[in-house]
């Protein structure tokens, strides 16, 4: 990655910072959805993007560890990626059903 090389920041440090930031974004999205301040469609969109970025960040962190910890971090990244795919499919399905309802009216 060119940005860390230019700034002199290791990939693992950047991954930790980005991972923490995306965990905060996902936490705020869950809170807003649970309190009724965010629609389900918006929640799925944020969950999709946040999960993909969290997976990327975890893969950056995995470069700094080894052994079973690395396997655990990579497994978390794979799980986060899977959650992003599912959230993206649900977001797409939700948008499609909203569009069909608009056309039917």
TrEMBL record:
Q: Where are its TM segments located? A: 12-31, 43-59, 71-89
Asked whether the UniProt record includes Transmembrane among its keywords, one would answer: yes
UniProt keyword terms in alphabetical order: Membrane, Transmembrane, Transmembrane helix
What is the name listed in the Swiss-Prot or TrEMBL entry for this protein?
A: Uncharacterized protein
Protein's organism: Haloplanus litoreus
């Amino acid at each position: 990655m060119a940005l860390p090389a230019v700034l002199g920041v290791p990939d693992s440090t950047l991954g930790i910072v980005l991972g923490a930031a995306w965990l905060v974004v996902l936490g705020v999205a869950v809170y807003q959805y649970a309190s009724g301040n965010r629609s389900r469609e918006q929640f799925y969109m944020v969950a999709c993007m946040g999960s993909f970025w969290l997976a990327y960040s975890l893969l950056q962190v995995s470069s700094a560890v080894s052994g079973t910890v690395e396997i655990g971090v990579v497994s978390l990244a794979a799980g986060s990626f899977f959650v992003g795919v599912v959230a993206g499919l649900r977001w797409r399905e939700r948008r499609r059903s909203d569009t069909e309802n608009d056309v039917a009216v």
